[in-house]
Design brief:
The protein has 661 residues and is of the alpha/beta class. It has 16 helices and 36 strands. Helix 4 packs parallel to helix 5, helix 7 crosses helix 8 and helix 7 packs across helix 9. It is elongated.
């Protein structure tokens, strides 16, 4: 009942049947965001011959130019963007990736990105809904733009209350008037463009409410300076706003309230490697810290430059700097002239009042909730976040973080820079787990691995069991045997009195070569292998760093600098990962090469009093003196093979390895 009342759904309890993909891409320059900054950066780099990937989360590239009336070189911004995109699309060294959100920045210039391939289309067989990309870029430019923030005031959650930028987007991009009588409440000059665009489109602007007392009043509509919204009226939709201003109080009939508390640079990716942003008092927002992510440079609105001319200049400058690092020459082309105004703001985070003033609309966190957190001594922004759940919804606080920490700073008597921000972690926006794990369903998650003897085992009606993803026979029943114990007793008796054969191909096999191979084995094993003679095998125990046993097995010395390690079936992958780690972390500069060859060899254990006689019928040459724990090269019907004199059963035993293909 509570979940239904809250509007929460329920899981179907069925697995996701949609198709997802994963992909990899490599480039010289990754440009994140296709607004004016990103377009200018991509164009500059592409003309210089660099391999460029331009990714943007929108279905249509162009960024804010799609929602503004700004002109560039006397062209409407949207037409300039289309011309640039047409040139980029025609270049063979450019990949345009719309509907693609870069979700995380990782080590080594690697970025995660989610492409919405078929999510917007009707379900089609074999068309993936999403594709998760791993993009490796030598250089990257963060041109992700900025997010408009609101102002907290009493009853600011009624339908019809929107951000001023969203109103412009509806009007200029989609041709929709969000209201018939629109009021604008702001603390910055950028929101005035909303009023001018609405007036030019013939929409009635009831008033501009500017919280700054010294702001200009040049628009062709009522302008109230030093004004704040102290309340709203309306049940299913906004009908009226209550305004306090320098001359008193008034009520305005309005069905749409466009609110702008300023813009926050979308800097989250720059913080994904533990970097902290820097407070910029001039724009009342945080900006990226230079060098926070290696080889990633922020530009444009993501760097706190909100005028179009500044965005173009920073986009070009960032691309030229990246090209210089890439040892590519490029000339700075003349920039288009933009006609928009400079950005000016005076911070206003919350309007005092008795009724609820919402900060986080996704998690229903109010100004009073944050103030209560401070009184309860949750003065750290991280503690406040967990106490109130502010910023813990799917939007990760993109619309509320700065406002909430400003309220916390005021409640604790600190400045915003001292209060700091919460930790930004990937992903930047929600990512389907199915997309990240594409291919990991069914056999993709638990693949079936078959030995070369698999068909022969099935012909003999052997029950198959899984061992480290391998399918192995557990025993070979014969007619008349009613229990597994009868079969196993017969097989044991065969090994004790005659000979038995078992396929041991599933044991891990790791080929280790190099002048430092013996030194390496001495490091990873508890016992010594550098003294092992060529042509001999030794049993070894491998320990973890904490001293516990990781695995055991035998290692053969095939030549002076060539060893073959054998591991248990279940630990083959674990041991290979451990060896990779040790070689990279502790053996830098060593002459050492190692690779898994488990699937390359089919290996059979032959044990029992008649084991040598059985081998003699297979080998092309007579087996001479071959002592216990010896190894060497042999030939089986013309095929080069390897023979090991080892036994785990106590009987005379050998292991014969032949190439699997």
């Amino acid at each position: 009942i509570i979940r239904r009342a809250a509007g929460l759904g329920s899981l179907s309890r069925r697995h996701d049947e949609a198709v997802y993909e994963k992909a990899w891409a490599f480039c010289d320059l990754l440009v994140i965001g296709a607004g004016p900054t990103g377009l200018m950066a991509a164009l500059t780099a592409a003309r210089a011959g660099a391999d460029v990937i331009l990714a943007d989360e929108d279905a249509r590239m162009g960024g804010r130019l799609l929602a503004e009336t700004v002109t560039l070189d006397a062209l409407p911004g949207v037409e300039w963007a289309e011309a640039v995109l047409a040139e980029l699309a025609a270049l063979p060294n450019v990949r345009l990736m719309p509907r693609t959100t870069v979700t995380g920045a990782y080590d080594g210039g690697t970025y995660g990105a989610l492409e919405r391939v078929g999510l917007h289309l009707a379900a089609t067989p074999d068309l993936p809904r999403e594709c998760f990309w791993r993009i490796v870029a030598k250089q990257a430019i963060l041109a992700s733009g900025a997010l408009e923030r609101t102002i907290a005031f009493a009853d600011n959650d009624r339908p019809g209350i929107m951000t001023a930028g969203a109103v412009r987007s509806y009007l200029n991009r989609y041709g929709v008037a969000p209201g018939q009588r629109v009021t604008i409440f702001a603390n910055n000059d950028d929101a005035r463009r909303t009023a001018r665009d609405l007036i030019a489109a013939g929409v009635n602007v009831a008033a501009i409410l500017d919280s700054r007392e010294d702001a200009r009043a040049a628009e062709d509509c009522p302008v109230y300076l030093g004004a704040t919204v102290t309340g709203t009226v309306g049940r299913r939709a906004l009908r009226e706003v209550i305004v306090a201003h320098s001359a008193g109080e008034l009520r305005l009939q309005t069905d749409c309230l466009a609110v702008s508390g300023g813009w926050n640079p979308a800097l989250h990716l720059s913080c994904h490697m533990n970097g902290r942003p820097v407070w910029n008092e001039a724009i009342a927002a945080f900006v990226p810290r230079s060098g926070a992510v290696p080889n990633l440079a922020a530009a444009g609105a993501a760097n706190g430059a909100f005028a179009t001319a500044e965005c173009l200049a920073q986009g070009q400058a960032a691309a030229l700097a990246a090209l210089q690092t890439l040892d590519r020459t490029a000339t700075a082309a003349s920039l288009p002239k933009a006609d928009d105004d400079a950005y000016a703001i005076r911070a206003l985070w919350a309007v005092p009042g008795k009724r609820r003033a919402w900060l986080d609309f996704a998690n229903d966190v109010t100004v009073k909730d944050v103030q209560l957190a401070a009184r309860e001594n949750y003065a750290s922004v991280e503690h406040m976040k967990r106490y109130t759940t502010q910023g813990m919804a799917p939007d990760q606080g993109k619309n509320s973080n700065i406002g909430a920490l400003a309220v916390l700073a005021d409640a604790t008597g600190r400045g915003i820079p001292e209060t700091g921000t919460t930790t930004f972690r990937p992903p930047y926006s929600p990512v389907s787990i199915a997309a990240m794990g594409a291919g990991g369903r069914g056999m993709g998650f638990a693949p079936q691995r078959f030995m070369t003897s698999h068909a022969a085992s099935l012909e003999r009606a052997a029950p198959m069991i899984e061992a480290g993803f391998w399918y192995r026979p557990s025993y070979f029943p014969r007619a008349g045997e009613t229990t597994w114990r009868e079969t196993c007793d017969r097989e044991v008796a065969m090994v004790r009195t005659s000979v038995g054969v078992v396929d041991v191909s599933t044991l891990g096999k790791i080929d280790i070569q190099g002048a430092d191979a013996a030194r390496f084995l001495d490091l990873v094993y508890a016992n010594t292998f550098s003294t092992l003679p060529v042509g001999r095998v030794r049993y070894g125990i491998m320990l973890r760093e904490d001293g516990f046993v990781l695995d055991d097995g035998t290692t053969a010395r095939l030549s002076a600098n060539h060893y073959l390690m054998t591991t248990t079936t279940a630990a083959a992958g674990l041991v290979m990962r451990h060896l990779d780690f040790v070689s990279q972390a502790f053996c830098a500069g060593w002459d050492l090469r190692l690779i898994s060859v488990t699937e390359a060899w089919a290996q059979f254990a032959i044990a029992g009093p008649q084991a040598r006689a059985l081998l003699a019928s297979l080998l092309d040459a007579r087996l001479g003196d071959f002592p216990f724990m010896a190894c060497g090269a042999v030939s089986v019907h013309g095929t080069p093979a390897r023979l090991f004199r080892i036994s785990y059963s106590g009987e005379e035993g050998y292991e014969l390895a032949v190439p699997a293909r």
